[in-house]
Write a structure and sequence with these properties.
Length: 175
């Protein structure tokens, strides 16, 4: 049976691969801030991101401001490299904080992905769309035993290796 997530992922990836925006100047430097949207159920659908681009290298922090009110939130630290005309590869880490009783448990995830720069909407507004793999490495804290990544069964792999689509709409300004 065809899963709806695969249909959405195939459609989005086909769209990303057919666009041809103007290439960003690899010597350009800018700061950017915007909205990060995703299909991953392990993180909030809407989060805020900010970063600085130094040539082909982009350093990005993604924050979950909605999670601060109830204590469960995510923090991503990403490094993105523009590998071609409008494609980039990236990697990073996500720390998820989950309240357990009066304590917190931390979930550490490794992130890898690819993204494409979409055609510009406005002068300083950029849109990125891509595919992400989040690998749940370890859950620890709150007095519970550490739970490491497992590959023993299909259910375990499904929980620890999660593909998702994402989009970032950001405002950028040179510095």
């Amino acid at each position: 049976m065809l899963d709806m997530r695969w249909v959405v992922m195939t459609f989005a990836w086909s769209f990303v691969s057919t666009v041809s925006p103007a290439a960003a100047d690899p010597c350009e430097r800018d700061w950017h801030a915007g909205l990060n949207m995703r299909t991953d159920f392990g993180a909030r659908f809407f989060r805020a991101d900010a970063g600085v681009r130094l040539g082909r290298l982009d350093l990005i922090a993604v924050l979950d401001p909605l999670g601060l009110r109830n204590g469960d939130y995510d923090l991503d630290a990403l490094v993105r490299y523009e590998s071609g005309r409008h494609w980039s590869i990236w990697g990073g880490a996500r720390v998820s904080v989950v309240p357990v009783g009066r304590d917190f448990q931390l979930h550490d995830k490794l992130l890898v992905g690819v993204s494409g720069l979409m055609p510009p909407l406005f002068d300083r507004v950029r849109v990125h769309a891509g595919l992400e793999l989040a690998i749940h490495m370890v859950a620890h804290g709150a007095g519970l035993p550490a739970a490491w990544v497992c590959v023993d069964s299909i259910e375990c792999r499904r929980d620890h290796f999660v593909f998702s689509l994402f989009s970032r709409v950001e405002y950028a300004s040179a510095f």
